[in-house]
């Protein structure tokens, strides 16, 4: 894919700038209710109702997620939506016993993974400058970029799922090695963490745990 140049590039830039101005005029901030839904009042969930999730809703979550910013637009995250009984049984091999009911009870569990060869797609994702040499001979930098930005995309995914009315419960209590062998053998993909998705059964919730105050963890320089 070739990068736009000249008048075409200037027109695209002007449109992008005006689109952003229009957006900020239309919405200057989220409502308190919206902020509560996606973060401030949101909870990690451990039990689920049997209400199914339409595939179209999963596609919508992805469409929101993919618009989040990543370094050089690398977009290294790859997602496997585990929803079939067979898929759940494969994933269950990796999950610690205490987490097994959480995963098996969720309508869908998303494996948030990242692609070590993400940089090979840069001619499409970052067409105006060839940044592939930065990664091609530096696998440690490539892996670090993939892990950091793939994790960031996982956070976008959680917020997106809550924004469209679903509940989530992220999990790290599993074996990445087993997931990689079961789902990504022979590929350049590596698992990062799991996100259970569904409509929560709130009876499993306990009180919200403490948070630090601004003054405890923030400073000015």
CATH architecture: 3-Layer(aba) Sandwich
- How many helical elements? 10
Tally of strands:
4
Q: How much helical structure, as a percent, in the residues?
A: 40-55%
Shape: globular
**What is the H/E order?**
HHHEHHEHHHEHEH
Indicate the low-confidence ranges by residue numbers: none
- The CATH H-level superfamily is NADH Oxidase
Largest sheet: 4 strands, antiparallel
For the largest sheet, list the strands in their spatial order.
Answer: 1-2-4-3
Estimated structural class = alpha+beta
* N-end to C-end Cα span: 42 Å
How many structural domains can be distinguished in the coordinates?
1
- Over the alpha carbons, how many angstroms does the gyration radius reach? 20 Å
In round numbers, the mean pLDDT is 96
Range of strand content: 5-15%
The CATH class label is Alpha Beta
Q: In the CATH scheme, what's the topology name?
A: NADH Oxidase
Describe the structure.
It is a single chain. The chain has 221 residues and is an alpha+beta fold. The chain has one domain (32-205): NADH Oxidase (3-Layer(aba) Sandwich). It has 10 helices and 4 strands, in the order H-H-H-E-H-H-E-H-H-H-E-H-E-H. It has helices at residues 6-26, 32-40, 55-65, 85-92, 100-105, 122-125, 132-136, 139-163, 176-183, 214-217, and strands at residues 77-82, 108-115, 167-171, 189-198. It has a 4-stranded antiparallel beta sheet with strand order 1-2-4-3. Helix 3 (55-65) packs across helix 8. The radius of gyration is 20 Å and the shape is globular. The model has no long low-confidence stretch (mean pLDDT 96).
């Amino acid at each position: 894919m070739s990068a736009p140049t000249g008048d075409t590039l200037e027109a695209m830039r002007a449109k992008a700038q005006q689109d952003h101005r229009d957006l900020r005029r239309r919405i200057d901030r989220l409502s308190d209710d919206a902020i509560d839904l996606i973060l401030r009042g949101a909870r990690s969930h451990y039990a689920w109702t049997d209400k199914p999730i339409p595939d179209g809703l999963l596609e919508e979550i992805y469409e929101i997620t993919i618009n989040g910013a990543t370094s050089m637009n690398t977009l290294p995250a790859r997602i496997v939506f585990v929803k079939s009984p067979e898929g759940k049984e494969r994933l269950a091999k990796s999950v610690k016993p205490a987490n097994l009911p959480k995963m098996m009870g969720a309508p869908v569990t998303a494996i948030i993974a990242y692609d070590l060869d993400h940089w090979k797609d840069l001619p499409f994702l970052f067409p105006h400058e060839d940044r592939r040499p930065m990664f091609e001979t530096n696998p440690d930098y490539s892996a670090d970029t993939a892990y950091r930005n793939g994790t960031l995309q996982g956070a976008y995914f959680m917020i997106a799922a809550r924004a469209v009315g679903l509940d989530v419960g992220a999990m790290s209590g599993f074996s990445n090695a087993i997931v990689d062998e079961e789902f990504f053998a022979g590929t350049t993909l590596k698992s990062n963490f799991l996100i259970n998705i569904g409509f929560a059964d709130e009876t499993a919730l306990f009180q919200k745990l403490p948070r630090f105050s601004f003054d405890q963890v923030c400073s000015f320089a």
